Amino acid sequence: MSAVIEGLGGWLPPRLVTNDELSRRLDTTDAWIESRTGIRQRHVADGVSTGEMAVHAAARALASAGRTDVDLLVLATTTPDRPCPATAPEVASALGLAGIPAFDISAVCTGFLYALATAAGFLSTPGVDRVLVVASEAFSTILDPADRGTVPIFGDGAGAVVLRRGEPDEVGALGDFVLGSDGKLADLITVRGGGAAERTGALTANPADRFFQMRGREVFADAVMRMTGAAADAMKLAGWNPTEVDWFIGHQANLRILHAVAEQLELPLERLIVHLDQVGNTAAASIPLALAHGQLSGRLQPGQRIVLAAFGGGATWGATTLCWPALRPIDRIT
Amino acid sequence: MTQNATLNHVELLSTLLQEKFGVDPALVTDDTVLETLDLDSLALIELFLLIQKRLGILIEVGAVDTTDTVGDLAARLSDPSR
Lengths: 334, 82
Hints:
In chain A, 31% of the residues lie in helices and 24% in strands. By secondary structure, chain A is an alpha/beta fold.
């Protein structure tokens, strides 16, 4: 049994913020942002919620699959609409799927891969024939608007896939998953406040704790090494040589991270799908949005060998392989 | 480690800096401060990753900064435990 991708959709909120616009209100420049990250622009939710973006992307994925029903909905997000309850049940209800199990997964930028693996596991159980895996992020809602270190990096949006039960040799089949975490690195990527630690007084109050913080240099190094290691392990499990890989689709955090991973894996840079220049780092949504971008642009073709890899807060990391499915064309992700 | 080993590592770093960042080898001496080579903090990490891939030597983030010299980094290659 393998999980097979049957549908794909992406949704970006209409508000576009360019580097030039940011340079007018933050002490930064387009040249600095682009040279440091590869990012030229990002979409910002601007009043559209994580749940609403998830519904839009999921609806497109269902239409892509030609389905109206699934047996489970898993939503990967770092920015749930509320700390309680999870956002997934409301998303399921909005899609006309009230009654199915639905839950959130929290693994920051690794969230989509964790969610895919979870869905693949559920598909091996009776009664679960189809799963909607959604990733949706309104990261702009947790950023300090005055922080030139994070505001230029992150963008908002949502992506989704429909998975069905299938066979390993099918076009669209996902390979084995390589997943990991290291809680000793928990302080690298944080929103420290807003949780139980703050409410019980276990956390010393600091105004900055309301906002997202990241230790960029350490994250860069760890992301390259963990994404490289996980991708190499996933390729080994699939029996693939790096020369047999058609596309590497890494979590879209920073172009220089993607280049460094390609260098470590000895993959030509032309094998990278790059979407972050247009949408920034959309955290858990970055991989499904990059998949949708790859399908929309015509770069991804049925039967091609794809490696996915991510690193995120936790710290968490993951990778898998897949053979690209034959999907209906995607005509938009905005 | 001998001073010769450190000087050889300066040459090695010069080669890597030219290959990875297009740095003119004439600018790379033992005393060259890394930030004067127009390397930002991420570039230093990219260099550490390249060193790890090519030489199998791990240099931890923060062990060498852009305000350090090429010689400081070369010394790390000679003795990573410093």
